[in-house]
């Protein structure tokens, strides 16, 4: 049963719609994950993306080698220092992805109503009559009448670069298909998707493990996006693997739900994962189109109830080539916010799109507008209720693990939550290190949370003057950001012993 929590707080005044959006240090509570790639890897462009509202940078290893992504990441580090904007790093695995291999890289034109053979023999040249695939079990997995979808940018829906096939015959290891639409495939690799079948490949492949244990470890990744998560066991296996890689035992694992099998096991996956990414492009192939919205609403609602981030993909595809989204896309972004999404993930729009900075900016503005009419009454608890009642401009939460701040954010306050992460000292018997950086960056995907790192000399549960200096730092940050103005009310949530204390402050000039 899908909860109806989309009702507006109050009727919309038409005059308010025409008012220009006011600039804000926090452009939106909803976070934006941007995929960095060929069109978004220079220091200048990444700086623009950070300024526009990107808080998590996604590195998609479905394409590009580790050296390419490392150069991009080094540029990200420079951009972070330049803009003074904190940004987390997400590694997206390839997973059990089926691909058509075109070693010649020449464009291949497929004609409607013609036949094409899919073969596991990768030594053969790709032509309009024969397409080599990287999976020897395809002929055992499909049957006559099954639908296969192929494209370089698989789920854009562009009929000129994507092709629908219908299986007409299985001959040994080869699969004979009828081409349903004319299309031209360009480039060395095209993704292949077969609707609603089980692919007998591991979710975390050997190639994925190699990338994680080298590139991931070197860069202390904050998030692992586990592509094509199908069972809770996939998450447990990935977590066990990360636990062997030093600091990566702190890395959060987001289950990327891409097919019906993942949806069927959603509840169990949600229990094990740190967050969920709904890969709507893939789901749009695996599900009837009229069912996608229903699964989205139910999945996001379950994430909200569990207090775990829900991330939605594929919202403004048209902005890959255009400066403005379509009306349907703008509404789709707003509805994702009204459904309760924590973050919007931009893929092709920023990876190879012509307007990555503008896309992030526009998506942020749409999110901010939707947040103004979100029904908060269904989600508030004590801290949030106090903040709403006194019309606070911000909530400040002291935390070490980040959990307290995430619990507040779960109830969707109308104002930003400044999460003051207090570092803790730990040792492995050989050296002392401070925790806190991971916890701060991992807040960057949670709706409404904006982390800052406190001085490690200040204890998280202290009641002495040191805590007052941490609070002053948070207030000064809020004032400098423009989110706290003279005589604004501020709600402070602080743990003292086993109790949580909520204070209401009214800072002076």
Automatic annotation (TrEMBL):
GO terms for molecular function: ATP binding; kinase activity; magnesium ion binding; potassium ion binding; pyruvate kinase activity. Keywords: ATP-binding, Glycolysis, Kinase, Magnesium, Metal-binding, Nucleotide-binding, Pyruvate, Transferase. Its cofactor is K(+). InterPro entries: Pyr_Knase, Pyrv/PenolPyrv_kinase-like_dom, Pyrv_kinase-like_dom_sf, Pyrv_Knase-like_insert_dom_sf, Pyrv_Knase_brl, Pyrv_Knase_C, Pyrv_Knase_C_sf, Pyrv_Knase_insert_dom_sf. Pfam families: PK, PK_C. Residues 30-360 form the Pyruvate kinase barrel domain. Gene3D superfamilies: Phosphoenolpyruvate-binding domains, PK beta-barrel domain-like, Pyruvate kinase, C-terminal domain. The keyword Transferase applies. This is Pyruvate kinase. It comes from Handroanthus impetiginosus.
């Amino acid at each position: 049963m899908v909860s109806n929590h989309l009702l507006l707080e109050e009727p919309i005044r038409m005059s308010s719609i025409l008012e220009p959006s006011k600039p804000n240090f926090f452009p939106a509570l909803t976070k934006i994950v941007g995929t960095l790639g060929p069109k978004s890897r220079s220091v200048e462009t990444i700086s623009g993306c950070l300024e526009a509202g990107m808080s998590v940078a996604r590195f998609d290893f479905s394409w590009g080698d580790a050296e390419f992504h490392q150069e991009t990441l080094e540029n990200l580090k420079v951009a972070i220092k330049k803009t003074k904007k904190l940004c987390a790093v997400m590694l997206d695995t390839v997973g059990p992805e089926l691909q058509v291999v075109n070693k010649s890289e020449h464009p291949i034109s497929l004609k409607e109503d013609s036949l094409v053979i899919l073969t596991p023999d990768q030594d053969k040249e790709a032509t309009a009559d024969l397409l080599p695939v990287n999976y020897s079990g395809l002929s055992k997995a499909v049957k006559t009448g099954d639908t296969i979808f192929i494209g370089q940018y698989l789920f854009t829906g562009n009929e000129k670069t994507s092709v629908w096939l219908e299986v007409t015959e299985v001959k040994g290891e080869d699969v004979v298909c009828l081409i349903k639409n004319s299309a031209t495939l360009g480039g060395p690799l095209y993704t292949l998707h077969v609707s609603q079948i089980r692919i007998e490949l591991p979710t975390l492949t050997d190639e994925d493990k190699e990338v994680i244990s080298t590139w991931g470890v070197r860069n202390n990744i904050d998030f692992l996006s586990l592509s094509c998560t199908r069972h809770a066991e996939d998450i447990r296996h990935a977590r066990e693997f990360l636990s062997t890689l030093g600091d990566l035992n702190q890395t959060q694992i987001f289950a990327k739900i891409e097919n019906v099998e993942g949806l069927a096991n959603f509840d169990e996956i949600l229990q094990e994962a740190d967050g969920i990414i709904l890969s709507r492009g893939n789901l749009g192939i695996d599900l009837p189109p009229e069912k996608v919205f229903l699964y989205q609403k139910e999945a996001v609602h379950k994430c909200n109830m569990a207090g775990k981030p829900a991330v939605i993909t594929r919202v403004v595809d048209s902005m890959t080539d255009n400066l403005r989204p379509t009306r349907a896309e703008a509404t789709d972004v707003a509805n994702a916010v009204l459904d309760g999404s924590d973050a919007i993930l931009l893929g092709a729009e920023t990876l190879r799109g012509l307007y990555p900075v503008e896309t992030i900016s526009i998506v942020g503005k749409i999110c901010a507008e939707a947040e103004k009419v979100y029904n908060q009454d269904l989600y508030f608890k004590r801290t949030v209720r106090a903040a709403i009642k006194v019309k606070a401009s911000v909530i400040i939460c002291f935390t070490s693990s980040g959990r307290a701040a995430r619990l507040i954010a779960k109830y969707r306050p109308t104002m930003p939550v400044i999460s003051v992460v207090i570092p803790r000292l730990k040792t492995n018997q050989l050296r002392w290190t401070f925790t806190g950086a991971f916890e701060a960056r991992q807040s960057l995907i949670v709706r409404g949370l904006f982390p800052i790192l406190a001085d490690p000399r200040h204890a998280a549960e202290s009641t002495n003057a040191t805590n007052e200096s941490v609070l002053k730092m948070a207030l000064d940050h809020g004032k400098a950001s423009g989110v706290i103005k003279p005589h604004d009310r501020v709600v402070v949530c602080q743990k003292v012993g086993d109790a949580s204390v909520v204070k209401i402050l009214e800072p002076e000039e």
